[in-house]
Amino acid sequence: MAAISKKILPLLYIATIFLLLLNKAHSLDSLSFSYNNFEQDDERNLILQGDAKFSASKGIQLTKVDDNGTPAKSTVGRVLHSTQVRLWEKSTNRLSNFQAQFSFVIKSPIDNGADGIAFFIAAPDSEIPKNSAGGTLGLFDPQTAQNPSANQVLAVEFDTFYAQDSNGWDPNYQHIGIDVNSIKSAATTKWERRDGQTLNVLVTYDANSKNLQVTASYPDGQSYQLKYMVDLRDHLPEWGRVGFSAASGQQYQSHELQSWSFTSTLLYTSPHYLKLGRSMI
Prior knowledge:
Blueprint: H1 2-28, E1 30-35, E2 46-50, E3 53-54, E4 60-61, E5 75-81, E6 85-86, E7 88-89, E8 94-107, E9 116-122, E10 153-159, E11 175-180, E12 187-190, E13 198-206, E14 211-217, E15 223-229, E16 239-248, E17 254-266, H2 272-280
Antiparallel strand pairs: 1-17, 2-5, 3-4, 4-17, 5-16, 6-16, 7-8, 8-13, 8-17, 9-10, 9-16, 10-11, 11-12, 13-14, 14-15
Pfam families: Lectin_legB
GO molecular function: carbohydrate binding; metal ion binding
Signal peptide: 1-27
């Protein structure tokens, strides 16, 4: 009995140390946070860029409004979570699953308000590009907006501008679009902006199927769905930041983020030597 214990204890010790290290590594490969609303204290974990600011209604107003809530022209703002997210791992070629849930409301005193809001993933050092108010949604430099080799941005856009002849990339309807390193969406579906109504959105990415899926719905049940197959390893760096961007040009509207939750996990496969350790015991 004593001889067996002497054999087992070192193996148990090694297995325990390994599992502790594995748990630490796993924590670095996962990210999870949730905001049912936004308070000023949340700024310690968020990066606000451009005209974005906390609102009195416990949201984040991404584009500029005056004291009466009237939206401004030529405005752009973004918010990103300060913690970086692992999107994939070069050494193992593994990909991360992720899920984002959020809600927002758009308001405009004019019928043809613009331009829109987007959930996006970009490089950790991402800043607002120059001259990106308006149709490029604070995500792309207009000079390279349609050049995928010049960008590293994955976005789900909610675009209220639809005069196709004026920019060359938007379809001729309000739409939800999936953008892969270009302001010209890789996939779109028609969408109706409802002034002052909350839109609830779920974005999921399945690392096994490479399927990015978007489901959006209004409180009355009207819903929209969109999906696109994309391998993040081909378009984004290993580490990134997640956030939201919104912009208006000469046609204006407000864009308020009301809630946001996010979870990501790098796919994990148990190493063969852990199984060997169990068999040795």
